[in-house]
Amino acid sequence: MKFNRLTTISLEAMSLLSLLFISPGLHAQEIIFHWSGAQNDQFGNTMATLADVSGDGIPEILVGAPGADCNTTADGAVYVYSGKDGTTFAVHCGVRLYKWYTDAFGASLADLGDVDGDNVTDYAIGGPVYYSSLGDGAGRVCVYSGKDGALMYQLEGEQKGIHFGATVAGIGDIDADGRADLLVAATEWADVWPSNAGRAYVYSGATGALIRSHDGEEEYDHFGYWVAGIGDVDADGTPDYAVTAQNDYPSYFIGVVFVYSGATGTLLYRWAGDATHFFFGVGVTGQLDWDGDGFGDIIVGGAGNLNTDGYVYVYSGKDGTILASAVGETFGTQFGYSVANVGDMNDDGYPEILAGEPLNSDLANFAGRVTLLSGRTLRRLYHFYGSGRADMRFGFRVAGGRDYNGDGIPDVMSSELAGDEATLFAGNDLFLQATKKDVTAGDSLTIDTRGGGDGVLAALVLKEVNGTACFLPIQIGSLDVNGEMALDTSVPSGLAGITLKLQSYALRQNGQRGIVDSSSETISIY
Fold first, then answer.
1. For residues 371 and 393, is the Cβ–Cβ distance under 8 A?
2. Above pLDDT 90, what percent of the chain?
């Protein structure tokens, strides 16, 4: 393959190249752990990172499988995995009453923070079709001790059929008792009328007592379709929370996001989708101050449908306006179906954003993918892929923000719902990706280096040819204002059978000493 190379190398470039020879290789975007459930377990239907509960200083992972056979047929399960070695740390099973009534245990789950004051995080698991004394589908949420996995208390739906526990979230300490609190939704709640309006409940984490509740506006709103703790949006010192209604009756699948004050329960903001922005609010997260004004901001996904684009929005906590947005590259992929604040990977002061695209068809029809967005620019840094099999819908759920491999960089997770799989990937502070991995003569090819600092020096290096190590810089230059550098080329004839391994390097941002490196990218020529 023919590349244009710089013939004049500055002293800064020579300094970078010398650092490359003495710096150890790092590993990023590699798979840290991969887990699989049995077919039809719905393994990965829910997932979350979990603060360290094993005492080894490494965070854990929660994965739900509401269709799993745990104690009995299809009672549901949640697996707590060790962040140190990926082994199963604990399993919580649902129940099945009589022949027909299952629990769908694991249809929701959340890291709550410390609710019992033992300095170990605790967690909640929902079983929204639990058969209680009130009847089927009343639902429940179980709160477990992170310290020993014991059930601390169980909350149950107030009516049958309301699917209490359809969603659950940790929201921080809103009642100022020093313990974390929780938010639970019953999406089918109805008080005679409006039918299926939905209700969200705020509970004391310490006692399980009800603090307040919020109701959907209209029938069939399915209020509580998603719930989230979003940090302190109004800068009053108390964390706030958000609730999504799936519908904005009489319009279906439009979506509405309601933001409430944690201190008072007052509605702070109401944002709605429209006819071109379906499934608005299907993913919501926060815990960031994107514009640095001291008010917490909110990330909202608007996935769209097969005929519309998906979006990811960043809303101002100060005034509710849209600060920034990113749109899907192709309509119909449901870009933004799931979103996560995954922390600042590249030390630019902005947390990166993960967006699921479960209907993306890059590798196969609806195989899915996950896009990592720069927190600074909302431009794409990297695309993560699952198995690549058709209809697997990788990106159905995403999570991240904790460091599992000890490199100081937060890592990311995603699930492949139809494949019953979940994967934890290593994060990175520099990203390299080619538009194609398998090419033939005449193909156009772009190789992008992304995620570095504005104007810093970077190099794209050929590291292997057919498995033989080498070190050949093929592009050296300064990253642009977005922290990116692209190499556009075409594949010449006569190179069939060659496999190339590339890697990018860049000087650190903000005048810091040292370099950052990407993962390797392999290109095979056929």
1. no
2. 84
